[in-house]
Amino acid sequence: MTGPNLVRLAVLTFLVLVIQSTVGLDIRVGGAHPDLMLLLPIAAGLVGGPNAGAWVGFGAGLVADLFVPAPFGLTALTYTLVGFGVGAVLALAARSLAGVDGNSWWLAGLVALAASVIAVMLYAVLGALIGQEQMLKLDLGVIAAVVAVPNALLAVPAVRAMNWALGVGPRGAEHRVTGSRS
Amino acid sequence: MAKPRRGRRTLTTVVILVLVSVSIITLAQRGGVGSRVTSGLRSAANDVFDPIQRGVDNLIRPIGNAFAGAVNYPALSKENAELRQTVGALRQQVLEGQSVRQQLRQITALEHLTYLGSLPTVTAETVAIGPSNFADTITIDKGRSDGVAVGMPVVGAGGLVGQVVLAYNHQATVRLLTDGQSKIGVQFGNPANLASATGQGQGDPLAVDFVVPGTPVKKGELLTTNGLADGEYPPGIPVATISSASTPAGAGQISITAEPVADLDQLAYVDVVLWLS
Which residues of chain B make contact with A84, given a CB cutoff of 8 A? Predict the structure, then answer.
């Protein structure tokens, strides 16, 4: 990852953080609110593959950890695994299926939906493992739905923004995922 | 050969990032230097980000309201129709007057919390509902510069609201007593029976533990903080009223639930009690 990429990633992370802490927190359904920061590792996994997904997840997670009253590092751990998972699954799919493209709107939406649900469950399970058992008692279905639906709807603009941040063209995403660019 | 090598490198990277994350969690959880560092980082980040957030919030609040309105559209439509019929004649001036009076009532109520005795307090306004889906918290507009510190109790007009868990320069995060991490030493009845009230999540009653079978328990009975020497709250603050009690066969304790005395949906203003155990 180059210097300009890091600057663009920092700008993108800051923008998403501002949107999350203002508009995102104003939207409440069943006591839960969207988690737009989660879009960053998902989009990075879609655009840049498992390595970029993991790095962006770690960075975005650490930033998110600064602002949530939960064990510090838990969001970083969850986002790292989600970013890596999205990139790895997409790379595996690209090897066995022709035409898998992280930039396609339907795939981006579908992956964001599934990855968000998994991220919410993973966060609760990891939280329980480090002594926050109450996380498993919450209405995880409602939280997962409130997190996943906005992320699915915003997946395409998030992927476009991540293409810009990582300095990858729309075609580049396909190449990264399928591994055809050496 | 390039691909497997790249795959291994990616896997190594992820393993390292996971290990770093786990190390950070462990250091932050264990207390000591790690905890102080993360708490300092959070405080600095909050102090830097707060003015930006407030500025942007003021600029784009109408957009947020529009989103919120779109999400809650069916409920809002119904509510709108009812409101149009019932309060159509009311003028804006009257509404504003009512709003101001309501705020005044809340603040005035906070001025007369007899159960606090002579304990000093700081009145704070709630500026945000918790930023995490996994913690039941609120953010208030008073912080370290106002004497607020981690561990201080927070009360509302009705009783105990929660406890300060993070304190920044000009803001603080309060964990509500309904949060699953909240545990409060309580007492009830005469002579006083000791118990522990634990949060069960937003909107759910508290679970009251360690009451042995045979202890007289009355529905509606008030639970107050017990103020034991190593407790986290001063004695006598109303916490909750018992809403149900039953003893399952063979159980080692009575199964008790209790509803918080403070109305946690009306927390526009709260009092931070400047008291530490």
Answer: 10, 14
Nearest alpha carbon to residue A69 among B16, B53, B162: B162
CA of residue B182 relative to chain centroid, distance: 9
pLDDT, one tens digit per residue, over B256-274 is: 999 999 988 888 899 999 9
Q: Mind telling me how many Å the CA of B135 is from chain A's nearest CA? A: 7
- A23 to chain B: closest CA residue: B64
Is B12's Cβ below 8 Å from some Cβ in A? no
Each domain of chain B, given as residue ranges in start order, spans 1-110, 120-273
- Under the phi-then-psi rule, with left for phi > 0, alpha for psi from -120 to 50, and beta for the rest, what region is B203? left
Residue B234, amino acid: P
Write down the CATH superfamily of domain B120-273. Rod shape-determining protein MreC, domain 1 (2.40.10.340)
The pTM assigned to this predicted structure is 0.81
Query: Which residues from chain A sit within 8 angstroms of residue B25, using beta carbons?
Result: 71-74, 77, 130
And the tokens for B273? 């009690």
Q: What is the pLDDT of residues A104-139, one digit of tens each?
A: 788 899 999 999 999 999 999 999 999 888 899 889
pLDDT digit string, tens, across residues A149-170: 999 999 999 999 999 999 886 5
Task: Tell me the chain B residues in contact with residue A21 when contact means C-beta distances shorter than 8 Å.
Answer: 49, 53, 57, 131
Residue A171 has pLDDT above 60, yes or no: no
Cβ pair A123, A144 in contact under 8 A: no
Considering A114-123, B61-70, B75-84, B208-217, the range whose residues carry the highest mean pLDDT is A114-123
